[in-house]
Amino acid sequence: MHGTLPASTPKAVAQAPLEREVLERVLDESRSWLAGRQAADGHWLFELEADATIPAEFILLNHYLGEIDDALEAKLAVYLRRIQGAHGGWPLFHDGDFNISASVKAYYALKLVGDATDAPHMRRARAAILAHGGAAKANVFTRIALAMFEQVPWRATPLIRVEAMLLPKWAPFHIDKVSYWSRTVMVPLFVLATLKVRARNPRRVDIRELFVVPPEAERNYLVNPTGHWIGDAMLVLDRIGRFLEPLFPKWLENKATARAMTFVRERLNGEDGLGGIFPAMANAVMAFDALGLSRDHPDAATARDAIAKLLVHREGIGYCQPCVSPVWDTGLALHAMMEAGLAGDSGVVAAASRWLVERQILDVKGDWTSTRPDVRPGGWAFQYRNDRYPDVDDTAVVAMALHRADAEKYRDSIACAAEWVVGMQSANGGWGAFDADNTHYMLNHIPFADHGALLDPPTADVSARCIGFLAQIGYARTHPVMVRALDYLRREQEPDGSWFGRWGANYIYGTWSALAAFNAADEDMTAPHIRKAVAWLKSRQRADGGWGEDCATYWTERKTEVKASTPSHTAWATLGLMAAGEAGCANIAGGIRYLLAAPRAGGHWTEELYNAVGFPRVFFLRYHGYSAYFPLWALARYRNLVAANRARPVHGI
């Protein structure tokens, strides 16, 4: 199935003894470092960093509730000042462009904690915000926050009514038709917007200085998010609904509010929080407060405590994570450790496997049943617990790791995972992350959706992971599920030969994912689409031997942008090329040398540039673990293929 290295292996790959020694030393150090980071119960957890908006929103939440924590907020303020861009505002990712929404929230948060408006960093931020049109140009979520703090009138936001909870499933909008993250954020937000809540804001801090036109005089808050005629029609409907709003009966509002809060309570998720994500948790806390629950009410206390678990504290500085990633980190780290030579019965692998098996969701039928009511549960979530919202990406990665660790021992877990993954395949042959057939694209035109992240349609990277998993456990490429999936993945290839990376930044991540899947499914690796992908990857290698890709590539006109090589991108590129049978090429040798020489502390390579995405063009992420387990994985795979004189790996990822 997977052939030997070609006889024409470049001399660059025929390592000198010293190079082999260096490779083995780095592998030993990295493996030991990662093993040392494993928790006593077997799992791994690395920090997950977003942009300024999450720590800023944490500060805003405190001041909304009137529960100011000066000591904690001072630490978050240090972080916000540190990540301010040279342009004066705040970017969505390290060294990125100015972003109006992140900048408005960060400025407001710093002013809330007491930064003087004439401080140099505040003057620079204010000038940048005004130069970009002022706070009125911020996105819908930012304007909603400003409306809560009485900085803009509520007409600055789209009409949002809790009665949307009562719409039937055949209606153009239904809560089941949007993505899981939109759903958990929107439902408590419906309550807040309907009540037109007011923050306590005990220090009465305002940001009127950030508006070009006084906020009450501004007339152009709402825009068509897509420019399509449907968006124009939605704006007309918004105006009509706003005119009729006073006529909405209170009994209907009360009924809808009760349904919304039932939804929230059923999904509070204990100490792991609503949806496992900060925006949903914060909205739940504010909704409970708006409805009069005391701070010590069990629901309110649970929701608030979940947020506290997202905080990262260091000496004199801190920030708030958007969520935590233990299952994802553990699954990927487990793959890297096994690639690096640890056996399935070793203490490290056995402990991680046991921890993962205990977190498989087997008895909760989550929101995904809206489109797949007859499919049995069997997946894993991203967080410690998020049983309503497993995702197929985590599920495929974890199940592949368990299969590799001990296919017989974990047979039942793997079988349940496979059944669930197969059941979640969408009609077009691909997979979305959390829902099947979440493709109600008309909803992207509503004014609320100016962030462009309302839906969870199938994507190439998630679909590739599912293909790799199913192939690894024995699904033949002729199986109907595989035929449809492989056809989907081929259709998704970009004209230049790459694949889009929905959850990792960006085309290098997507192309590695696709090539790994095709390799697992025993695709002809001499086929034109494979060779085109290989050529694209090779063309993106940089002079230092590494690969890099900027988060700006999520804007079509900036698709080729790169600031520097990174360990994560270099690992993905070399893993992708190895999947395509290129283990002996000079490009991989260059990438390996880059990884061996790149700065690192033990098994953690230095990497400041962001490496992932929450929502393209809106919300970006830096997985601190990526620059640990992916370089280890790539180095180990290279060592293994060369030692075995094999051209391609035998695993699904």
Short description:
It is built from 22 helices and 7 strands. With 653 residues, the chain is mainly alpha-helical.
Description:
- The protein is mainly α and 653 residues long.
- The protein folds into two domains: 319 residues, Glycosyltransferase; 272 residues, Glycosyltransferase (Alpha/alpha barrel), CATH 1.50.10.20.
- Helix content is 46%, strand content 4%.
- It is built from 22 helices and seven strands.
- The strands form three sheets. Strands 1-7-6 form a three-stranded antiparallel sheet, with no helix packed on it. The protein has a two-stranded antiparallel sheet with strand order 2-3. A two-stranded antiparallel ribbon has the order 4-5.
- Helix 1 packs across helix 22.
- The radius of gyration is 25 Å and the shape is globular.
- The N terminus is likely disordered.
Rounded average pLDDT: 93
CATH architecture of the largest domain: Alpha/alpha barrel
CA-based gyration radius: 25 Å
Fill in the CATH topology of the largest domain.
Glycosyltransferase
**What is the total number of structural domains?**
2
Q: Report the CATH C-level class of the largest domain.
A: Mainly Alpha
- The total strand number stands at 7
Topology:
Elements: H1 17-36, E1 48-49, H2 53-65, H3 70-82, H4 100-112, H5 120-131, H6 140-148, H7 180-195, H8 229-244, H9 250-266, H10 278-290, H11 298-308, E2 311-314, E3 317-320, H12 326-339, H13 347-358, H14 392-406, H15 411-423, H16 460-472, H17 480-491, H18 507-520, H19 528-539, H20 567-579, H21 586-597, E4 600-601, E5 604-605, E6 612-615, E7 619-623, H22 626-644
Antiparallel strand pairs: 1-7, 2-3, 4-5, 6-7
Helix pairs in contact: 1-22, 2-4, 2-10, 4-5, 7-9, 7-10, 10-11, 12-13, 12-14, 12-22, 13-14, 14-15, 14-16, 16-17, 16-18, 18-20, 20-21, 20-22, 21-22
